[in-house]
TrEMBL record:
Its main location: cytoplasm. GTP binds at residues 227-232, 246-252, 271-274. Mg(2+) binds at S231, T252. GO terms for biological process: tRNA methylation; tRNA wobble uridine modification. (6S)-5-formyl-5,6,7,8-tetrahydrofolate binds at R23, E81, K121, K448. This is tRNA modification GTPase MnmE. Its cofactor is K(+). GO terms for molecular function: GTP binding; GTPase activity; metal ion binding. Binds 1 potassium ion per subunit. Exhibits a very high intrinsic GTPase hydrolysis rate. Involved in the addition of a carboxymethylaminomethyl (cmnm) group at the wobble position (U34) of certain tRNAs, forming tRNA-cmnm(5)s(2)U34. InterPro entries: G_TrmE, GTP-bd, GTP-bd_TrmE_N, GTPase_MnmE, MnmE_dom2, MnmE_helical, P-loop_NTPase, Small_GTP-bd. The lineage of its organism: Bacteria, Pseudomonadati, Pseudomonadota, Alphaproteobacteria, Rhodospirillales. The keyword tRNA processing applies.
């Protein structure tokens, strides 16, 4: 990317809508806005009604023009926004007119945000927060994304990084000024500070799965014997015919997912193939479905095990084999059983339900909801580690700090601390040696 290129794109979703927004960013943005509107630019950050014309002078649409002169814009560059009516022909007309402007080219995916990052408007965690916000499906996901976009994670990372740099700056200075061992009081304070950081990192790492899981959703796999009513339950919960239901055992083969919002938390409910032993040379497609069902059950956070209440005497053995302490057990088809009793299975408390009448679905949903609240609710206080990338960097930083604590010589400890700070800098995308110098000059008188 070269900063001198001017880019443009439709910033709202394509298709019909009341309003569509097109953005132009770069040195030619003002020129393009003048050319299309045939008038001077509006005052900075003030919306003005303008007619937009193509190169033949034909009116494409009337709409609002906004002018954000750099550096006070999202990208840090000159940026113009055209708000027009959101029809396919209007949008295409605007895109064609912008393409005809010299020096303009269509933006690549993420290029506006990339420019905002390059201009120092957002760091990497804030960029990720913005992406998460655009993808957020539930309230809790939105809250986490807004916090991260607002810099909560970066402030936490920067705080750790500043503390590491501070310790290492003191060590480097002591090393420079003497060629012997570190003074004992300095060595003790280094140890104390580094040990405190290691402890905080351990807490953050122990909690890190929460933020990642909130981005992805709690995964629930529905398992059970063929015809237990798994697909019927999925449909009843989703309120639509997401999966095929039939009286033929072995109907479901592919994993069918439905996204739920339970108390603001994302849950991905997956219907799977019924578990059963297939005869030799049996249906290979069903066998593949069963393999996928088992794989999904193994990686799910929760298995929702469905048993047939019409046959209470012999709960399916293959399903019982998959029960774990985080399983939720359901007797389905209670309408056929003629009783609402839900005897425990292998010691697991069960819920009585009927996909047909809807009975018991409330209890089932509130059980899932309370599991989601337990999993996610607690984690909302601290800025979350939301990506494997963050976790890997923190694990690496922890190793560096642990090595620094055990280092046989102060020079080696200082090197490990430098590495720890760099690792953290990778999370926010601000790896910068100038910082180390800044701290040194800040804390020590130059004349000394
Ligand atoms: N009476 C009654 N019938 C049900 C209930 N739930 C499902 N059924 C019926 O049971 C049969 C099997 O239902 P499915 O939802 O296809 O069962 P499944 O567990 O997904 O079956 P496979 O995909 O083949 O493993 C269908 O004929 C459903 O109409 C229920 O609660 N009550
Ligand atoms: K079936
Ligand atoms: Mg099914």
């Amino acid at each position: 990317m070269t900063a001198s290129e001017t880019i443009f794109a439709l910033s709202t979703a394509p298709g019909r809508a009341g309003v569509a927004v097109l953005r132009v960013s770069g040195p030619m943005a003002g020129e393009a806005a003048r050319a299309l509107s045939g008038e001077d630019l509006p005052a900075a950050r003030e919306a003005r009604l303008r007619g937009f014309r193509n190169e033949a002078g034909e009116l494409i649409d009337k709409g609002l023009l906004l002018w954000f002169p750099g550096p006070n814009s999202f990208t840090g560059e000159d940026l113009a926004e055209f708000h027009v009516h959101g029809g396919r022909a209007v949008i295409q007309g605007m895109i064609d007119a912008l393409s005809h402007q010299t020096g303009l080219r269509p933006a690549e995916a993420g290029e506006f945000t990339r420019r905002a990052f390059d201009a120092g408007k957002l760091d990497l965690t804030e960029v990720e927060g913005l992406a998460d916000l655009i993808n957020a499906e539930t309230d809790a996901q939105r809250r986490q994304a807004v916090r991260q976009m607002g810099g909560s994670l970066s402030r936490r990372i920067e705080d750790w990084r500043a503390r590491v740099l501070h310790v290492s700056a003191h060590m480097e200075a002591a090393i420079d000024f003497s060629d012997e061992e570190l003074p004992e009081d300095l060595a003790a304070s280094v140890r104390e500070n580094v040990a405190a950081l290691v402890k905080e990192l351990d807490t953050a790492l122990a909690e890190s799965w929460r933020g990642e899981r909130l981005r992805e959703g709690l995964s629930v796999a529905i398992v059970g014997a063929p015809n237990a009513g798994k697909s019927s339950l999925l449909n009843a919960i989703a309120g639509r015919d997401a999966a095929i239901v039939s009286e033929t055992a072995g109907t479901t083969r592919d994993v069918v997912e439905v996204h739920l919002d339970l108390a603001g938390y994302p849950v991905i409910l997956a219907d799977t193939a019924g578990l059963r032993e297939l005869p030799e040379g049996g249906d290979g497609i069903e066998a593949e479905g069963i393999r996928r069902a088992r794989a999904r059950a193994a990686e799910a956070d929760i298995t929702l095990a469905i048993f047939d209440a019409a046959a209470p005497a012999s709960p399916d053995a293959a399903t019982r084999d998959l029960l774990t302490p985080s399983s939720v057990v359901v007797w389905n088809k209670t309408d056929l059983a003629g009783t609402n009793s839900a005897p425990a299975i292998d010691g697991y408390e069960a819920i009585a339900a009927s996909a047909l009448t809807g009975q018991g679905l409330d209890s089932l949903l509130s059980r899932l909801e309370s599991i989601a609240v337990d999993q996610f609710g607690l984690g909302e206080a601290a800025p979350a580690i939301t990506r494997a990338r963050h976790r890997t960097a923190l694990e690496e930083m922890r190793l560096c700090l642990a090595r620094a604590l055990d280092a046989p010589a102060p020079e080696l400890a200082a090197e490990d601390l430098r590495l720890a700070a760099r690792t953290l800098g990778r999370i926010t995308g601000r790896v910068d040696v100038e910082d180390l110098l800044d701290v040194i000059f800040h804390d020590f008188c130059i004349g000394k």
